[in-house]
Automatic annotation (TrEMBL):
Residues 22-294 form the SAM-dependent MTase RsmB/NOP-type domain. One of its GO terms (molecular function) is methyltransferase activity. Belongs to the class I-like SAM-binding methyltransferase superfamily. RsmB/NOP family. This is RsmB/NOP family class I SAM-dependent RNA methyltransferase. It comes from Paracholeplasma manati. S-adenosyl-L-methionine binds at residues 113-119, 137, 164, 180. SUPFAM superfamilies: S-adenosyl-L-methionine-dependent methyltransferases (SSF53335). Pfam families: Methyltr_RsmB-F, RsmF-B_ferredox. One of its GO terms (biological process) is methylation. The active site is at residue 234. Keywords: Methyltransferase, RNA-binding, S-adenosyl-L-methionine, Transferase.
Amino acid sequence: MSTIDFIESKIKSYYPNHVEAIMAGLKAPKKVTFRINTLKSSIEAVLSTLEKQGLMVTPVDFSEIAFILNEGHEQDLQSLDIYDQGHIYLQSLSSMLPPIVLNPQKGDILDMAAAPGGKTTQMAALTHGLCTITACEQNPIRAQKLKYNLDKQGATKVTVITKDARQLDDFFRFDHILLDAPCSGSGTLDLNHEKHLQNFTDHLIQKSIQTQKALILKAIELLKPKQTMVYSTCSILKSENEDIVKFALKTNKVDIVPIDLNIEGVLPSDIPGVITVMPSALYEGFFIALLRKK
Ligand SMILES: C[S@@+](CC[C@H](N)C(=O)[O-])C[C@H]1O[C@@H](n2cnc3c(N)ncnc32)[C@H](O)[C@@H]1O
């Protein structure tokens, strides 16, 4: 079976009525999207710079700092001084959703699987430095990239821990936890480049599931009672999404909090209140669940 056939069979098993739409979404060339970093600049200043460069953008409903580049490529933004200075951060729209759903206001945040730091820096900007953030990353090379991005984006109140989050000390307690879990990446596959798909195997999916289960149990332990955590993946496979949330609910230590966010193009779910974003030209396939500890 070719990798594309394997992907299609997986999608068919979970979304028999959406196979064509999902496959088309995974093939669609992605729009360039970015976030304005309010730790370093302002919306007005960045929009004015872009306009002077002839780069037209469209705002996004769910966040005033998120924009779509109307025409052009990532390099058009990467070649600008405001990119080098960390005033903008290239980020997929789907990837901006978990911090928005978590909506931390004050206290201590744990970002359990943090590199390269798109969501860590977003949370630093969203909280205007009012929260302390602990960013954990297992892979030392990716942890370096995380530190580089934190520095570039001016996210100063972040402590990086280079460690397997499963080994975090149970003594810690956090007010907000983001578990943006390692996953198969099934929502971000580019079906136009078959040779880049070779890593997408059943072995990867099974390995991801084992890690996701261990990480979500750890997150539940580290979360303070009555506080919330987000579980997210860039996968659209229910075995890495709903099944992991059901596994967490079975501990009887957390409840689902329905997500109040209007996103066009979502896939049906058997858990009310979670969101599975359908892959498209604008969005990567993504899963988000909000949980509250009892
Ligand atoms: C989906 S990526 C995170 C993306 C990141 N949240 C962002 O927005 O930029 C998952 C990350 O988890 C890391 N990871 C995998 N297993 C881990 C573990 N057991 N503990 C901590 N980090 C882990 C991977 O190296 C990878 O960098």
